[in-house]
Amino acid sequence: MTVTLPRVLSTLPRVRLSVPVLRNVRGHAAAVDPPSFRPPKPEDGAMRRDWTKREIQDIFDGPLMEIIFRAATVHRMHHDPSRIQLCTLMNIKTGGCTEDCKYCSQSSSYKTPTKASRLVDIEPVLAAARKAKENGSTRFCMGAAWRDLAGRKSGFEKILTMVKEVRGMGMEVCTTLGMLSPEQAKRLKEAGLSAYNHNLDTSREFYPEVITTRTYDDRISTIEAVRQAGISVCSGGILGLGEKDEDRVGLIHELSTLSEHPESFPVNTLVPIEGTPLEKNDPVSVQTVLRTIATARMVLPTTIIRLAAGRHTFSETEQAMAFMAGANAIFTGETMLTTPCSGWDQDKAMLSRWGLRGLRSFEDQEDISVPTTRSELDKATL
Ligand code: SF4
């Protein structure tokens, strides 16, 4: 009689291996037995504004590959996963800002290498927007280092002209100009502004450790003024400020419970700047960035998630993982305000290597057919 290996094994006493949930150094689930990988829940991808912090924290703390898988599935319910929007950000007024954001080289509270300058003239801004468009960017953002627009009547008029002209080029136009009143938001809308960026930066609890010259609620008031004016809201955060995981969760929770989800969620990672109080902060890990993106994708399913400052510190493969986790826009061009940025050629080559393409601007997106419901998604994947 032939004795086979399976037969021998079947005679051995059965030993049940029990491997406890392992926690890695950050407290996230690292391995479980039985395997916890499972299909997305039926409710994944639903638009909700009643998320609890506990629910979001549970997503955030899940096994990383599982949350990326779930986020990728949600991503496909609401977005074309092959499209990544290219956006370009220009600093139209550098430095000399009276706010004290501890990460920022443009704050007049710190001695940094950034030199203050006046508002850039209209023509160089339009030339930069044309160049961005020629290179494939479909969104042009203009940033000014200001607390607000008080006493800047002529500067504001110039910016309104820039908005009108860039919008006329068929690009989405975004500005970030500090705090806005409802009247200023209305005028920006009339000029054709597509979106206004005003980041919450971090959780409500951690925020006072980073900025003391304006409150969290000041920021939310500006976001609401923008929303009321009919302008899209772009609001996100910065990772690596010294915050904890619960602050990353707190930021996502805060945005998910606003009157509407922001249309855009930029994810910045701190680029430490000499002379700022955070110049010696440790870099944030790529796993933390991926957790944050995947969690944001699950909680804010229709929002465009933008890889913003600090992207150049991640490898191409790490960025591809971020796209898998739900990021679908990148800032590209020459600089990212005062920090380095990967260039268009480099980025277009990267996208092409991963089978990705640029996202068209909202104006010509309507003909992009993407599955939005579970049944459409099921059919699309047959
Ligand atoms: S982040 Fe903006 S508001 Fe804060 S100091 Fe810098 S320029 Fe000023």
Automatic annotation (TrEMBL):
SUPFAM superfamilies linked to this entry: Radical SAM enzymes (SSF102114)
Pathway: Cofactor biosynthesis; biotin biosynthesis; biotin from 7,8-diaminononanoate: step 2/2
List of residues binding [2Fe-2S] cluster: C141, C174, C234, R306
Binding site for [4Fe-4S] cluster: C97, C101, C104
Domain Radical SAM core: from-to ranges: 79-311
Classification via Gene3D superfamilies: Aldolase class I
Enzyme class: transferase
Range of residues in the leader sequence: none
InterPro entries in the record: Aldolase_TIM, BATS_dom, Biotin_synth/BioAB, Biotin_synthase, Elp3/MiaA/NifB-like_rSAM, rSAM, rSAM_sf
PANTHER family assigned: BIOTIN SYNTHASE, BIOTIN SYNTHASE, MITOCHONDRIAL
Family to which the UniProt record says this protein belongs: Belongs to the radical SAM superfamily. Biotin synthase family.
Protein name in the entry: biotin synthase
